[in-house]
Hints:
Structural class of chain A: alpha+beta
Oligomer: heterodimer
Strand order of the largest sheet of chain A: 1-2
CATH superfamily of chain B: SLA1 homology domain 1
Distance between the termini of chain A: 24 Å
Largest interface: A-B, 53 and 34 residues
Strand order of the largest sheet of chain B: 1-2-3-4
Strand content of chain B: 25-35%
Number of strands of chain A: 4
Radius of gyration of chain B: 17 Å
Order of helices and strands of chain A: HEHEHEEH
Amino acid sequence: MKQYNEEIATNPAVEMIHASLDRDKKAAESWAAKEGFPWPTVMMDKIKESGLEEYMPRAVPNYKLLSKDGKIVAEGKGEVFAKVAELKKEET
Amino acid sequence: MKKRYILAAALASLLGLGTLTARTWTSADGKKTFKGELKALDKAAGKITVLLSSGKTVSFSTELLSDADKEFIRENEAAIENVGPGAQAGGALNEQKIGKGLAKEGVLSKLAGETFAGYKLEKAPEYYIVYFSASW
């Protein structure tokens, strides 16, 4: 959460999207409210419409860094945030 | 002359935006009023998101509002969508493979208090971190 607020929310080049695999919207909502999720969410019933279906992982949690054109740039939490930090350095 | 006309039109447009979204809202029973700026409308869920003068953002059902407020929302539906937080990013998002899907009506939601409310991206980024997870 801290990492999101400090590194992503203020970065115009990157956005974080939570793709919820909960089929029960109430369960997803309760969890998000309990944790105070600050990021936008795509609910399970909207994943196909969002175009994220082709990136669905075999197991969760899973992080992917996608370019705006849909290429997978990095995968796994460590790799994804390392790549974001690298991109930020390149910009400065 | 032409420059003056363009300037006046731009100014009128800006003034129009301010008066359209900032409003004194009234509860359905007429007993409570509050000032706030309309930030988003979720037609599917029948909810609006309002930025209160205290700086707090709240999301609630339009059923809690007075008939006049509901009428205002109905009459200005198209304009509200055009001045919402996602309006500026919308065009750029539609040029992207990822952004295009996320910009579709009703696809994104965001926590507003204890519940999810409709949300539109406020930026058109170069990269997206997609975090797949579930509560279980």
